[in-house]
Amino acid sequence: GPQTRSRPRRRSHETVVTIVEDMSTTRKAFHHKGSRLRATENYDYPALRMSNRAKSPGLVLDGDSMFATIDDWLTMTGRASPEVEAGSPLAGDARWSPDLQVAHAAWSAVTQAVDHLHALKSLVADARVVHTHAPFTLLRSATENAATAVWLLEPGARIERVRRRLKLAFHEAREFGRAHDLMAAEAVAGIRTAKERMIEIQTLATAHRIDPNDVAGRFSYGAVVRQAGASTDLGADFASLLWQMCSGFAHGNYWASLSFLERQEFPRPSEAGVFNVRLTNDVGRVLTITQVPFVLTIQALGLYERRRRSPFGAP
Known about the structure:
The protein is an alpha+beta fold. 53% of the residues lie in helices and 9% in strands.
């Protein structure tokens, strides 16, 4: 007869601090109607209501549709990147910066965004597990990478696209330098130092009349997410809010968990003023956050297609 596979029992872990968090995994967030993956929760989460400065956009919460698209993206990114046509904006960018190409960095960022989105899909849709905190760490990385691709490709002027590419490269060189200092000498033998790489980047910037001090200035993923979000229907504030929420989860901050997850409080009789707090995640909350990297990836792919084509009217 047909074999059935039993699922492992849910494991719970409690950590006693000022509150007690139930880090358990929930598998009860789904119901099916036809083939559509939906959530049982209402999508109006108070923590995500915008201030008067901005209006929350409509939500993309069709899980089946999003996850099917992510499957297609994974297949696409498993192949060589689309060819950059001669005479296209990205081909012109490459002439300015042949070693640090806008096209290469943007496609790499798209690939990494898709990889993290597919990891989420494998967990939530395929394995049917919704961990309490882990999905938001995957979504943070997906958001930062998708936003980086949009940020690199969105400007219409070549000088600005190349400036952003050099700024990203300088940031990476600086981060590598910090790691380099911690590595054994034999591990980095023969590799250019971070300082050498940063000098090369600033020299290239100067050659194209790009301020080398700006290139070497502070790089912020928060700023990247805001600027990328502003170029979509998400808007800068909404994209930034959901990214901040994911960052809060990634760093284990109480404000993110307590403001976004469903919670139940149970007084501890032996300790006045201390509560056990059970925190529960569900697929609706995950899909709500997923819309940000999903929409940004759509935007990035559209921009890449436009910038790689010729003729485009490159500046």
